[in-house]
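Why this split exists: single-chain examples teach little about how molecules sit against one another. For that reason, every record in the complexes split bundles all components of an assembly together and asks for one structure covering all of them. Below is a record exactly as it appears in the raw files.
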Amino acid sequence: MWKKARISSQVIFFFVFLWLFVNTKSKGADELGYPVKAFIDADPLLFLLTSLASRSIEVIPYLAIVVFIVTALFGRVFCGWVCPLGTLNNLVGGLKRKSALAPTHNWFWVKYALLVFLFLSALFSLNLSGLVDPLSFLIRSFSVFLYPTFTNLTVLLSIKCASFGELYFLQGSFIGVLFLLVLGLNLVERRFWCRYLCPLGAFLGVLSRFSVLKKTVSERCNNCGLCERMCQGNPNKAECFLCGDCDDGCPQKAIHLGFKGKELPWGIDIGKRRLFGAIFGGIIAVPLFRISPTRKVAFASEKLIRPPGALEEKEFLRRCVRCGECMKVCITNGLQPTLLEAGWEGIWTPFLVPRIGYCEFRCTLCGQVCPTGAIKRLTGKEKESLKIGLAVIEKNRCLPHAYSIPCIVCEEVCPTPKKAITLETVTVKTKDGKEMEIKKPQVDPELCVGCGICEAKCPVVGSPAIYVTSAGETREREKKFLLDR
Amino acid sequence: MILSRREFISGLATVAAAFTCDKFFPLKGALGKELPPDLVLVQGPSPQRITRTAIDELGGMKRFISRGDVVVVKPNIGWDRTPEYAANTNPQVVSTLVQMCYEVGAKKVKVFDRTVANPQRCYLQSGIAEAVKAVGGEVSFVHEKKFRDVKLPGNALKSWPLYVEALEADKVINVPIAKNHGLTRLSLGMKNWMGIMGGWRGMIHQRINESLVDISLIMKPTLIVLDCIRILTDNGPQGGNLSDVKIMNTVVAGVDQVAVDAYGATLFGLKGSDIGYVKLGHELGVGVMDLTKLKIKYLKA
């Protein structure tokens, strides 16, 4: 009874998730047209921590409010019936041998400690929620690991459905290993992640304090203990996923889960020492994550080119939840997750690597899918005059500059209406003494928007003869280095 | 083009008939009517109409396309720009050609280009995908695995990967747009072959004229229709600035790649010999750039 309804719900939500994920993709139009970030929008933890860290509310989170209310009334329905990562954990957990189902650990406190840690660091403006939030974790893993693995496999097997070739991601394997690890933990114990680690689960557990969930156990119960072994969470309000396995599976039909009967205990017991440890850790994490000098504008990596519309770096880091939607939607595959380019605080945030893919001049999709406003939604007009960096010519490698060999690729592909790369015709002497005209590219720093198509298409192999640095990007006032004309 | 037996016999019969009737009707051409002009220029407000008129003046699409042909119509779809910016071929010119091919019995008409900017955006924003699909043409994105190394004459390129679908088609119709280009001054018909080139094609700019002529020597288009509805006079080949666009409402059609390009150059106030690849194409026998030696017909439609 419970099981059929729950599994149908899980299947439906999982396919909705997959459909939205797959459609986080350009078909060439200016607008994406799908609410692809719906699952992140429904996440009350991401909303709360991001609002707390950035001290601002971007939009009213209707979906998250629905999840909030449902959880307060009925408990962790989201975990058992909706969450796509929970569904995957369920699936993998099904592979575990039945004889070894009984829970062996009492690590429920870990996720509450993690929640307190995240809450405290967000209070002091450090937003790490995206690293461990299950929906961010899942979309990121899908975007930079599972989906590229799938498309590259279709290319390998010459299946035509993925005609846009292979996708590449820095960190793809690292993030992929973590994803497989989380799934693999289900073989240690079913729903290991959901039970012990998930901070969203912990938050929803806290919310279910006054839920109306009740359980009756009739006299027919013969203490066989099967329900305890079948239980996916733990029989109390904060840990019950409402999977209904105890109700369905009791051989004596003695258990009834519903609105009548005995109230379940709340069941959160983190312990004073751990609580203080988490609080202290959350606070100390703030300076610790920021000890890297990359926060100083003068020292920031010139390779850290943020997506167009990204907020000023400090504000950007407070908002970005590392969900990877922007990397999924990026039509050139240019948006990549960082490792330490933006310091520890900025791990897995998006940056543009033009040699992998440039920023398409008229595309504004990353801003359209960003769920937290870390990347602003831009109009076509705003995008055209927004600088994300500045191109620099490496004259020792550039064919016309270094070898007097004709090449105008960077000028040809430069997309600004008045070209930011111009050609200066100069007369040079060839080695046999003849005079020859050659066109040498120059960059106009006023016009260059830093899109990086010149770097992407530069025919010089290896390190390109023209590349983009983050100098002069519009979003960072301190990076301005040219006087207005 | 390989003649089928039927075409051969009917052609032979026509010629024979023409000769026999010579006494009674003076011979104007092998087919009993006036020879079509080398170049046709049609000006007018409707892209469809001027394209149709141009082809009809050249002898109609049936002169170029036979029943059952697989045809490639190759426009320039290189950039993420809408039609008014004159960076890609006019969508109506392309779709009219596709439609005309079907009208004379083409089996399949394929349209594609290896774009420079993101292909999905180029195909959609140029309006070409939609216009071509509406008349039943097959629009496809270029697939990286469908290139084949082809031996070339070697003025600059000894071999290069070219797109198999263009090589294997029965007929190829080249539909470039006339526009400004930083290195070659103008991008015209022969320059449009870059869209069937695979590999790291940016390299060919090192010897652009020789490279383009190498490809033009082996790619023999059945027909070239140069779109000059709007021409891009500066900041090409990508444009983006409406003040660089000049409205000409013209198409130039012909069967000689060099001649069409040479005429295209005059629209920008240049001569064919000012364009390196046109000049070299003339010298190496791809075609004729001397417009005084050509029979050119001007029309308004």
